[in-house]
Write a structure and sequence with these properties.
The protein is α/β, with parallel strands linked by helices. The chain contains seven helices and six strands; from the N terminus they run βαβαββββααααα. It has a single domain (2-107, 152-175), classed as Maf protein. The chain is 43% helix and 22% strand. Strands 1, 2, 3, 4, 5 and 6 form a six-stranded mixed β-sheet that branches. α1 (10-23) links the parallel β1 and β2 (28-31). α1 (10-23) runs parallel beside α6 (154-170). Bound molecules: inosine 5'-triphosphate (ITT). Inosine 5'-triphosphate binds at residues 7, 9, 12, 41, 73-74, 85, 87, 123-125, 128, 137-138, 142-144, 154, 157.
Length: 176
């Protein structure tokens, strides 16, 4: 099975591979760099789901022989006066049927969010890399690996988001 992903970020490709491999055999993952036209740090449900959807549709369009297109987008969800980070996946098949799935969310420290809202940094990765002296943390376990003291990695969050998006595909009798 060929699964095309609208990203080359290794944490996303790994999470997608692990999710599909639970339900399908011989899963081949191909990552493609795609333009989403949404900000580097999406804020609010609408921007995040749009980013995930566009990534999935673009990867299906440019990928060769894809059985599925997958988009994963991370962004902030404001709740009361806090911001939570979520990964949203959109999985679409060759017939144009697609579903969303959501990861667990973690609260982002207020000062980190403020630096992005003020325009000091463009996205979360830049704030985290600057504070912790990491390099490309978004591709290496993610901020969540630092916050969870290495227990949870970003690929785990992507895995859950993609698995949730696959639920309607693997239970078609009750979702159709
Ligand atoms: O190459 P692409 O696919 O664009 O991957 P990305 O990681 O840059 O793009 P996203 O828009 O999905 O992520 C939004 C930002 O959140 C950052 N980030 C860092 N650690 C994260 C984590 O644990 N979970 C979610 N997002 C994280 C990520 O690096 C980005 O700066």
């Amino acid at each position: 099975m060929e699964v095309c992903v609208g990203s080359t970020n290794p944490t996303k490709l790994k999470g997608v591979k692990n999710a599909f491999s639970m339900f399908y055999n011989n899963v081949n993952i191909k990552g493609y760099n795609v333009q989403t036209g949404i900000p580097p740090q999406p804020i609010g449900l609408e921007q995040i789901i749009e980013g995930a959807r566009r990534r999935a549709i673009s990867s299906l369009a440019i990928g060769e022989r894809c059985d599925f297109g997958v988009g994963v987008e991370a962004g902030f969800i404001p709740i009361e006066d806090k911001f939570f980070d979520v990964q949203i996946a959109f999985v679409i098949d060759r017939n144009g049927i697609g579903f969303y799935g959501f990861s667990p969310m973690f609260m982002v420290p207020k000062t980190f969010v403020e630096k992005i809202l003020a325009g000091e940094y463009r996205e979360l990765e830049e704030v985290v890399d600057s504070y912790f002296h990491t390099k490309n943390i978004g591709e290496k376990g993610g901020f969540i690996s630092i916050l969870s003291k290495g227990r949870i990695r970003r690929e785990d969050l992507v895995f859950y988001a993609v698995t949730m998006a696959l639920i309607p595909f693997i239970n078609q009798n009750i979702y159709s």
